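Record format v2
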Amino acid sequence: MAATFFGEVVKAPCRAGTEEEEEEEEEGRRETPEDREVRRQLARKREVRLLRRQTKTSLEVSLLEKYPCSKFIIAIGNNAVAFLSSFVMNSGVWEEVGFAKLWNEWCRTTDTTHLSPAEAFCIFYHLKSNPSVILCQCSCYVAEDQQYQWLEKVFGSCTRKNTQVTILTCRHVTDYKTSESTGSLPAPFLKALKTQNFKDPACCSLLEQPNIVHDLPAAVLSYCQVWKIPAILYLCYTDVMKLDLITVEAFKPILSSRSLKSLVKNIPQSTEILKKLMTTNEVQSNIYT
Amino acid sequence: MFVPCGESVPDLTGFTLLMPAVSVGNVGQLAIDLIISTLNMSKIGYFYTDCLVPMVGNNPYATGEENSTELSINAEVYSLPSRRLVALQLRSIFIKYKTKPFCEKLLSWVKGSNCARVIVLSSSHSYQRNDLQLRSTPFRYLLTPSMQINVQNKMKSLNWEEMEKSPCIPEINDSEFCVRIPGGGITKALYDESCSKEIQMAVLLKFVSEGDNIPDALGLVEYLNEWLQIIKPHDPTVPSLRWKMPSSWRLLFGSGLPPALF
């Protein structure tokens, strides 16, 4: 509880997240069979499913058990997705091997084949000429209760030390803690975090303490650290979270990394593709929209 | 589950496990940070679980360039074999409905690894204190029956206050009395489970409010130190000089301010 200057007593938010715990305990004690059923149905609705594109049937095993993988590259968020689309997927033939179907309060992934820019998706591809290279374009938000499920469905329980993982994502620059004011930071800029077993140099400086990462990128990197998989996360701090040319281009230094170098063919063409992507997504705004 | 950093699982037989409850002011977690940092404990493994919100960052206890790039996750285990101490640090909050499964997995690991005892560092909302508690020390302890046999006398000699029982349902006058730890996160659940599983557990907590909880954390480690003597008490040195704050405690309240503000 806290008292405000206006003489009211309000319940102050607890950063240890304990309010919910107490509610949960009480719920546990008072839970009826109907409550349990509602909870079960909600859990079912929030289940993450990995499906084959053509047949829309679930994969029997995890994705990387079904498709042995030497390189796993994942883009999380629209800017990272646009970067991979323009600079990596434009060269070579990429074939869809599956997609993740999930629902949460923020998004519902769509399973249509023709995606509009506004739709959320999580699609897995492999390179036809080298099927052990797998790429994931994930524009949907995976909620905290779904992140471990997603990991299970993609990585499974087998540890894959022969797979190298690269994760690309963006965060807002105000999340970056520094002794200077965030307004003075040269956004967008790139930072990296790598697991112990990732021996190659990063293409940018490492993320300094006390900065941390959460959500799906953190879930993937944690999994790789624990199971000794070489993995690197490239994090672009930007002040524009919607699709933005300058933010996407901030990922360019990683084109020289070992995991992406062999996959990138034509950079000028990629830049053209990127510009086209931007214009299709731009909404002409006027004072009435 | 516990996943070791190295190839083999370290032997924790007879060790004292120190762990925080994610509770008001994050005092337990701050206290564990102080212990790991001051004693320079080494990371021996991860407590990999789907119960905590994922997070990663570089080494929070880095002392220089050479050790600043080790990745840390949300639940890690550190040890100091010379003192038979092992510490579990939790760095994020629980995912909804996952507190009970976490308690079960944790206690099952404690039993399986043959730790001698568990000490949970926690905190409780200071605004929930009754009149007596308002006038006394803000520190409390709680022991499971199997722990009481061993250390009750020590607690008496230290003049420590045991956590009082309060009405189970505060609004009802003739409600039964039980131990309540509002704002304590999983503390009560862990304590209850340990009682029924006959695990030797002690809970050390402080009544706190949210804010700058570093002094509360220093207070809690000093309280623990009265019992365990983790570091030698030096009169009259100030506690904040005896305990080493980790480098990750920088910028706890956000980035620098824009000069234009002034």
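The mean pLDDT of chain B is 92.
Residues 218 and 241 of chain B are 10 Å apart (CA to CA).
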